[in-house]
Amino acid sequence: MELTVKLQVFEGPLDLLLHLLEKNKVNIYDIPIVEITNQYMEYIAEMKRNDLNVMSEFLVMAATLIDIKSRMLLPKKESEEEEEEDPRAELVQQLLEYKMYKCMAYELRDRQMDAEQVFFKEPTIPPEVAEYEEPVDLAELVGDMNLAKLDQIFKSIMKKQVDKIDPVRSKFGKIEKEEVSLSDKMLYVEDFCKTHRNFSFRNLLEAQASKVEVIVTFLAILELMKVGKIFISQEHTFDDIKIESKMAA
Amino acid sequence: MEEKNYEAIVEAILFTMGESVELEKIAAALELDKKETKKIIENLMKEYEKPSIGMKIIELDGAYQMCTKSEMYEYLIRIAKQPKKHVLTDVLLETLSIIAYKQPITKVEIEKIRGVSCDHAVNKLVEYNLVKELGRLDAPGRPLLFGTTEEFLRSFGVQSLDELPMLDQVQIEEFKQEAEEEMKVKLDI
Amino acid sequence: MEEKNYEAIVEAILFTMGESVELEKIAAALELDKKETKKIIENLMKEYEKPSIGMKIIELDGAYQMCTKSEMYEYLIRIAKQPKKHVLTDVLLETLSIIAYKQPITKVEIEKIRGVSCDHAVNKLVEYNLVKELGRLDAPGRPLLFGTTEEFLRSFGVQSLDELPMLDQVQIEEFKQEAEEEMKVKLDI
């Protein structure tokens, strides 16, 4: 129920994103991606996860935001040969275009309200005139269309139908939701910190069973770093990350 | 509109309704009494007598109706006589082929196959007399069932419905296998 | 009628047909060329602007239709049935505006702009006869192409697609520069 109420407010991820930008009074061209991503994730966390179709649309955008966020966290290439593109550029473009159509939609609504005040008339063709209404000339209409061609059309439609059934995915079983919560993972990492004061990020990831676990572990590390429970260091780009516990043993 | 243009309102009413409208009703819309209303209508009727106007207002038993002047008939007939440009568009052909091979079929089923609403296409095909209603499906909402007409058979050179080569289960299976083969080839690369 | 009252004929045609009538057809009925016919229709349209007349003539993509003036609405609503209105949600309006500006367009392209699946919205718009299929794109999967209908023009009081309210290139540029100015200010601090 809650979901439908919220969805009336946000018609999709771009809509939500625009709302967040407005709420924070920031310019589309200068999205504070870290803040916005956090707020976006908070919103997703609030959504009841009962409509996977809707959720997935929001999640795609969440992934995009996190992708941009992580790219912005990475140190910039030092070579100045090619100017690095702002990772936000594509999103900005998409937001601008979406905003433009949203603006047009309002304009259309105004016009519709004006146009609605008008009445039209049903045709009233006098009987003397109606007699001359020519029947549709079927022979001309059908032209050189024949059964064989119609058959072709039908087959191509049916083939499209069959194509829609993804032969790989249709064989998949049910997808079970994996329960990997960020808070659980944080507890896990904190525990790990108690036994290992200094450890390697890679080692920690090796202990993770699935992709989801790896991702959530990474998020847990970021979160713990933010609250100051751990300290991380890395000598060079792509080197292993060293993690040091800042918590009392 | 500072001063109400009563004549314009009467005009608009008669135009919109198309059929005859009783004096009472017009008076109620104008918020005037019948006598005043009648005077306005009579003025308007006189105005319409001008040859520069193509319509006239007639009185029928205390009701009024706007219609074309009979001098205009010859032009209207010319409009009616102009062959309409009818074309079987892709949309119509696709819809027709689905109806032909899957009849009797409901609009909902057609929509399922094409993925788009088919109201307009089916209505056009009915207008062209290529498709007709066959009755109603005994299911919730009692949806209409559609099928092809005799004219369809004639125009497409089919002797009888049995002659419609059916895409049977076997063929659908073949399509499926074909699609799977294609996928396998892709995965092998 | 010694001299033809062309304006009266056009009036009678538009009145009788009720629906939109293409310029070609009117020209054929008048036995005039399109240019002359257009001039006559335009004169008539101007004539109809007088406040003493309750109707107006609108242009829809090269066709003409007679309807009532919006000032008449309050009176007509007392007597006539409200024309059927489709309530368009934000989703439908956004989807419609994308289709209107980008036609012909496929569902996939619409989804790219809105970031949300648009199946339902497009189907509803087709059902409301605001959007129609324009054929198929010559690309893998032959996806359907969509565009707006004449009903769209009518419902939104637009004469032709060229007349759609435009965020033109200039406006977009201004918009961008504004944003860039703001950025600079921020960087200066």
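Strands of chain B lie at 21-22, 55-60, 63-68, 131-136, 144-148.
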